[in-house]
Design brief:
Strands 1-2 form a two-stranded antiparallel sheet. Helices cover 20% and strands 18% of the residues. It is α+β, with helices and mostly antiparallel strands.
Length: 45
Amino acid sequence: MPIDPVCKMHIEIGKERASYKGVGYFFCSSECRKRFMENPAGFVK
């Protein structure tokens, strides 16, 4: 089960997704996706 990189919740693969440097990420909500897109490097190791 994937983990939302912003809030760290375990989530089902859903419609909220984005990619950064060729890697796909899934999010629990559009708000978490928005926060990620504002500063993806801050959420990715």
